[in-house]
């Protein structure tokens, strides 16, 4: 029995190293005899959900090792809205095994804490380019620190309804990040106007920006966005009641690539500034007395995953 166990271990090691062995020691061929590195992981495991991988993990020792090897090479993790029972325990396995993540989607994960998230960030900080933490209410700015300081490939950061996001965290972002193309800080009330002005002076590669219901967004902030973020294509200002025609006019003059502008519940913004934009920009507020049947389709211009996450 001991000898058989040793032979099985040697066979598993060979499979993990990508070596093809036509028949295992017991003389039977099974799925795991196909090369893991060359076939199973890139062409099979990449199409399996996390639930599938965890079910496979429960089948056998070989299944467990295959699942962990597959996670180690996985480039995207999607758990947004998943608040199922025992998900936190499963996440510990994922955080330990994943080492090549480029995209991390954890929006609305109410169970997520700093203690669970930090190990995952530590193992994947060099490759992460997209992080979505929208409505993750039980983490703190502590989890944001490695993202800000060590994720040098970061391009997309979503922090909507993260009330723990502070002015200090935005200042740190300004200092360490300069390549963001998409940024969402909707409903973040603890951020000051001054830090946003400084932030947009440096983050000038933004193409998608959401500032909905952020009280500190004023005309001065919008002017800074217009002057520095010349490549901006989509801007969400819904509920930014401090913004007026003055800021939108400055935006329209500078941001010639703008494709869509959301200004619902911005009562100080009128047709005086919106009318000149309508020829080239989709605006969520229709013209006065405009026939609804003549409105341009929202999805023709606005990225569908921007407001729905």
Automatic annotation (TrEMBL):
Q: Which CDD domains match?
A: F-box_FBXL15
GO biological process assignments = SCF-dependent proteasomal ubiquitin-dependent protein catabolic process
Q: Which GO terms describe its cellular component?
A: SCF ubiquitin ligase complex
Under Pfam families, the record lists: DUF7885 (PF25372)
Where is each F-box/LRR-repeat protein 15-like leucin rich repeat domain found?
A: 86-277
- PANTHER family named among the record's database cross-references: GH16156P, PARTNER OF PAIRED, ISOFORM B-RELATED
Which protein, by its recorded name, is this?
Answer: Jet
Query: Native species of this protein?
Result: Drosophila busckii
């Amino acid at each position: 029995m001991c000898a058989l166990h040793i032979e099985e271990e040697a066979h598993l090691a060979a499979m993990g190293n990508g070596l093809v062995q036509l028949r295992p020691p017991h003389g039977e061929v099974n799925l795991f005899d196909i090369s893991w590195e060359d076939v199973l992981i890139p062409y099979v495991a990449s199409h399996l959900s996390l639930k599938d991988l965890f079910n496979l993990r429960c089948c056998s020792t070989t299944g467990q090792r295959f699942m962990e090897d597959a996670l180690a090479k996985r480039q995207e993790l999607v758990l947004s809205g998943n608040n199922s029972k025992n998900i936190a325990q499963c996440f510990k396995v994922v955080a330990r095994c994943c080492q090549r993540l480029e995209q991390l989607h954890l929006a609305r994960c109410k169970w997520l804490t700093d203690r669970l998230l930090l190990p995952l960030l530590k193992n994947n900080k060099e490759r992460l380019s997209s992080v979505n933490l929208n409505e993750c209410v039980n983490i703190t700015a502590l989890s944001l620190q490695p993202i800000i300081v060590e994720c040098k490939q970061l391009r997309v950061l979503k922090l909507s309804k993260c009330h723990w996001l502070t002015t200090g965290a935005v200042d740190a972002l300004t200092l360490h990040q300069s390549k963001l193309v998409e940024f969402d800080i909707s409903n973040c009330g603890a951020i000051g106007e001054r830090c946003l002005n400084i932030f947009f002076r440096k983050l000038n590669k933004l193409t998608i920006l959401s500032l909905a219901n952020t009280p500190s967004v004023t005309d001065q902030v919008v002017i800074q966005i217009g002057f520095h973020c010349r490549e901006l294509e989509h801007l969400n200002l819904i509920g930014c009641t401090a913004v007026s025609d003055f800021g939108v006019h400055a935006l329209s003059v500078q941001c010639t690539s703008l494709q869509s502008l959301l200004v619902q519940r911005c009562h100080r913004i009128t047709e005086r500034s919106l009318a000149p934009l309508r020829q080239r920009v989709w605006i969520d507020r229709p013209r006065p007395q405009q026939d609804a049947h003549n409105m341009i389709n929202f999805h023709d211009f606005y990225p569908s995953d921007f407001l729905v996450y």
